[in-house]
Amino acid sequence: MALPSQSEFLRPILEIASNQSKELRYPDFRDELILMLKLSSADMQEKTPSGALRVEKHIRYCIYQLNKARLLTTEKRGCYQITPEGHQFLQYHKGALDQAQLNLLGTGVPPQSPDAMNMNDVSPDEQIEIIHEQLQIKLADELLESVKRTSPDRFEQLVIELLVKIGYGKGERVGGSGDGGIDGIITQDRLGFKKVYVQAKRWDSTQIGEPEIRNFSGSLDPHGASRGVFITTSLFSATARQTAAAAQLNNKNIKLIDGKELARLMIEYEVGVITKMVYKIGEIDENYFSDL
């Protein structure tokens, strides 16, 4: 299971605070979230491109957002409690808590632009990480919208380019009429014995369901294949993911990549993305001064 997105931490954090009469620190939220969201050890070790733990960044920034929206309050450095407004929000608003709601609840300053008054608990290094994360989220959203506007043929080629950059092997696009549900083939060895078959769906809002995964799994059989990657700009339903997992019983390994992960991978491997600017941040070399 992939680590939930940053916004998916917002409501659970607020609910954790609502169930406690004492002040909570970051470790308190983290330990409760592990249980509430069923986070695995792999989830907890996932890192950002800069090397920071992604889950830590998610939690700390969500606490900051909730504090800025006056749903959490802090009277002592690093300690948080739910506010009466926070209790009221949980009572009258069901479902996920998103960024748009926070913008309306807050002071009018977008949470994407942290200010010193509300970030006293965050070090300068952490502030950079927070801002970088927000820029990455914005870039991912814009990138996915751009991908959705491409033609189906261009999307299939984009997917092959991405898989090659990731390191799957040599790629070939084979999509078209009569493709049997296969849009590309990745050859992982020089003699072509190990192949990964690819299907790419450039869908906007409709979820990929169980039938599409079942059909893709069946399309591997004529090729005697056991490995496939299904990539979409949309989402996968729960039954679609269950179908992919169940395929392992038939010795098939089907990897699902939804729109959110697709955008993240494109940013990480620089497909359709260029580096705009680089900041160089120094720190003291303690070894240099060790003999002084």
Description:
- α9 packs parallel to α10.
- The protein has helices at 10-18, 26-36, 41-45, 54-68, 84-92, 99-105, 124-148, 152-166, 210-220, 238-246, 259-268; strands at residues 72-76, 79-82, 170-173, 184-187, 195-201, 227-232, 253-257.
- It has 292 residues and is α/β, with parallel strands linked by helices.
- β1 (72-76) and β2 form a beta hairpin.
What's the gist of this structure?
This protein has 292 residues and is of the alpha/beta class. The protein has helices at 10-18, 26-36, 41-45, 54-68, 84-92, 99-105, 124-148, 152-166, 210-220, 238-246, 259-268; strands spanning 72-76, 79-82, 170-173, 184-187, 195-201, 227-232, 253-257.
Keywords:
12% strand, alpha/beta
- Topology as H/E string? HHHHEEHHHHEEEHEHEH
User: Could you say which structural class the secondary elements and strand pairing correspond to?
Assistant: alpha/beta
Q: Mean pLDDT score, rounded?
A: 83
Q: Give the proportion of residues in helices.
A: 40-55%
Number of strands: 7
The best one-word shape is globular
What's the gyration radius in Å?
A: 22 Å
Biggest β-sheet: strands ordered side by side in the sheet: 3-4-5-6-7
What topology emerges from the helices and strands here?
Layout: H1 10-18, H2 26-36, H3 41-45, H4 54-68, E1 72-76, E2 79-82, H5 84-92, H6 99-105, H7 124-148, H8 152-166, E3 170-173, E4 184-187, E5 195-201, H9 210-220, E6 227-232, H10 238-246, E7 253-257, H11 259-268
Helix pairs in contact: 1-2, 7-11, 9-10
